[in-house]
Structures are given as structure tokens and as C-alpha cells.
Amino acid sequence: MVDVTPTIPAGRQVIESYGGGRFRVSGVLYAGSIMVFAERTLAWPVADMAAVAEATLAPLTAPGNSVDLLLLGCGARPAPIPPELRQTLRRAGIVVETMGTGAACRTYNVLLAEGRHVAAALIAID
Predict the structure, then answer these.
(1) Partners of 30 in the beta sheet?
(2) What's 112's domain CATH number?
């Protein structure tokens, strides 16, 4: 049998499961939407794409963060973000990719295993 699980350095936040309005990240269960960084996971007060804004994404640009790619899990389906918000993130050195929450969870784990400076902002899905 071949193990295809990505090797992730110790102390990193790995998304283990999602659904039912919650996530399991590195053994901890979170209810509602979350923002996942390599070293920590935060509750994220966003229930839908209409609430995604510069203010709700502020943890990404906080001092000490070295994120260069944001995976935005939009819920059940991908959705666009306003061009102004995309430009604001770009000026902060962050490229944003929007996709369904499930795809964002899987992609985050792969990129984390590759050592990328990635974060995921994930809208919870049922």
C-alpha cells in the first residue's frame, strides 16, 4: 500500500475534516467559519460571501504574518470577490484564489505540505 498523505511539519495546522457547519483542524473542532494559518486557526465571523470584506480579512495583513496566497473557501460553490478587494490584497502581497470550501481545504493541506506561505479563509458548509 502506498501512503499518499502529505507530510506536514509538526506544529502546523492541518484541516482534517469539514461539513455540518464545522471544521476539525489539527484535532480541534471549530463551529462556524474559520481562518487557518500555518501556525494557528481563528474563528472567522463570516457566514456568506457578502460578509467578506477588507475588515473581515484584516488578520491576513496583521504584523508577523507571511501569507502570500489566500485560499478563499466560498461555501458550497465558488464565487467572485469584488475587484477592489482583490486589489487591496494584492497591494499587501497576497494573491487570492476563490473556490468551494471543500476544494480550499484540500488545496490548503497540499500547499502547506509544500512549504508555501498559505492561509485559508473558509466559510462553513452544512
Answers:
(1) 23
(2) 3.40.1230.10
**Strand spans (E) along the chain:** 15-19, 22-25, 28-31, 34-36, 41-43, 69-73, 95-99, 118-122
7 Cβ contact partners less than 8 Å away, ≥ 6 residues apart: 113
Say if CB 32 and CB 124 are below 8 A apart: yes
What type of residue sits at position 93?
G
**Per-residue pLDDT reduced to its tens digit, 23-57:** 999 999 999 999 999 999 999 999 999 999 999 99
The answer as to whether 117 is a domain residue is yes
pLDDT of residue 69: 98
Give the chain's domain count: 1
Grid coordinates belonging to 40: 494557528
